[in-house]
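REVIEWER CHECKLIST
Item 1: Sequence provided? yes
Item 2: Single chain? yes
Item 3: Sequence as submitted:
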Amino acid sequence: MKTIRNIFLLILLGWASETLACTTAIVSGKYTVDGRPLMLKQRDSGRIKNVYVSGDSAKYAWTAVVPIEDNTERGVMYGQNEVGLVVMNSTSYNLEQKTDNPLKRGNIMCWALERCATVDEFEEMISEMKFFSYGSNYGVMDAEGHVAYFECGHLGYKKYDADDPTVAPHGYIVRSNFGMSGDIKEGKGFARYNKAVEILEDAYQHKNICWDTLLKMARCMEHGMTRVNLYDQMPSNENSEDIAYFCDFIPRYTTASTYMVQGVRKGESPLLTTGWTCISSPLVTVTIPIWTLPKEELPKCVTRDENGHCLLVDWATMMKSYIWPLEYSDGQNYIRLGRLINRAGTGLMQQIKPVEDEILKRGKKIQKHFYKKNKIDKDKLKDYYKWVDAYVAEEYRKIGSSHGLTLK
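Item 4: Structure as written out by the authors:
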């Protein structure tokens, strides 16, 4: 582990920041607090707005996130289906090669959700594709507790199983924007990789790996190479003119959403697979639990309305412009830190936290009820989502108003 990390630290200096910069992780249930496997996708993209959609026209019904402008609703960025299969990906720059293969990452993940029930079935599906025009690390989980990466590129694919001690001695695997099966020097995202590994290793040593660990990772404000921690630089209040350099942390300007999946134990209903999701930037978006049920049983605040808008995405977009106010040159690398966090506790992330805490407290309570019954109580879930929608709308209105921000 130390040897690999030292190699990455040497390579780090040669890479500038990149746009497609997802940070992902998988964890075997053998190493988590509750025995359920875990998965993280921190989605970075130039297509910054996304939305939850559902599909039920194929073998399996599914729930997933797509770019908000994707009216086909098939460009899946991550998601889960009714039999407990979960799929995500990160771009792998050292496995890329331009070919005539028309298969896109989103289409592959949509097909997987429609057709596959297990990690093995996903492998069977991609084995028939032979090669891939876009290098990608696919993370896949199933209801049997299996979780693995498939590094896919122009030479085919290679599987990395989180239960294999030769590749995951502590039960977790991290991928940013490179594959271990490719030339490491051609990869990207090593600073984010290093920090993610450090967080999971610390959780492993303290025997407390849980989905909350992944949320901590998604919002980590310490850089994986420079060790700069922005909490050590907090201005006195939100009116401070202090500008902070904000580049290649795990959360980025281009972070479009965060997906933290809590799988199921053997014997549990696969419908209990929980996707704890920030539909936009985790710095300014609350986490909401999502289960795979019909479309009308998703929270309205993470789906399109009749005008094609998503409430939380609209608020997050406005709040990000407030935090990243510089619109010229490399403005996205510089933030008004006091507007995000400050010593007075009035930063946006600090004001949003108690709102999220209440959502999570109630979400964990209803999840515990589902576990006890080993099924989803649709009436309780509808009531919870109805409360979430009203609570989010009101609290974001209050927080936005305190900073002079209002939605039209």
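Item 5: Key structural point noted by reviewer: The longest helix spans residues 348-373.
Item 6: Recommendation: ____
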